[in-house]
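Open question from group meeting: does this chain pack into something compact, or does most of it stay loose? Before anyone orders reagents, we agreed to write out a predicted structure and look at it together. Recording both the input and the output here so the notebook holds the full record.
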Amino acid sequence: MTTPARWPDLRSPAVLLRAAGVVAGVALALAWWAGQGVVDATLWAVPAWATLALAMPLTPWLQRRPYHLVLVLLALTGALLALAWALLVVRAGWVALAHPWRHVAAAWVALGAALGYLDWRHHRLAAAPVEARLQALQARMRPHFLFNSLNSVLALLRREPARAEALLEDLAELYRALLAEPRALVPLRDEVALARTYLAVEQVRLGARLRQAWHVDTAPLDALVPALTLQPLVENAIRHGVEPRPEGACVTVEAFRDDDHLVLFVRNPTPPPQATTRGHGLALANLRERLALLYQGRARLRTYASEGEFVAQVRLPLKPAPP
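Structure tokens returned:
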């Protein structure tokens, strides 16, 4: 199924730089074809750059309009700016570049190439890595977690069969979610439920050593977030903050709305100096890459130490779930 074309988010510096770079490349090619130099190529690129700059703050409005209508508006805007620029060029004395329709044609070619490239990159190139990374993350569950969970079940079977049965139900729910058909975005309430289920399983294994604090009451639970955002962060918190401490520790999960963004926090105590819990950072790197592909630079994952705690913060634009 082909993904429909959509106006790119030019508010993202990365997207805007890519579009401007394509325009510059087209202008250089046109100047070379006309036997002109780099300075002349820059003059050819100005109307297209100005059109992109004008469209940048209008991105939310443009994204709500049909794509073909946006293309018509872009073509008209580019033509008007090109004609105005040609008038300035005439007054400046650059006779070789003064033909107005050459500027219009150059602007249309440059803008078309930029939009074509961004559409190809976002819908063809970016979609495959997102799905592949998501599937890899869902499949990459630490094997020793499964073994530890099964050992916890075996230890409870004779002493507390009811708790063992409840643990098996939690494990079934957890692996049903992990092995389900991958989706790029899911409601926040599903992510919270999955993380709670994971912590319930680990609670049986770690007992009183694992303490939890949840602050999600005011969070927009219908907001869409990348699948498997919270669970890997919670898993890291247990591995590095709880397991190395004989007395255990508290894992804190927080979610709230900040204007038009959703903010997620997962906190745990930093490992003691003698602890050997150094990991490879694969889960964090995976999540960073998915955020970059899904949100085009408008979402981020930060990790830092603050007052004896290791903090993982995810900040992403709010996307409400469809009714």
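Observations to bring back to the group:
Residues 67-92 form the longest helix (26 residues).
The first strand starts at residue 185 and ends at 187.
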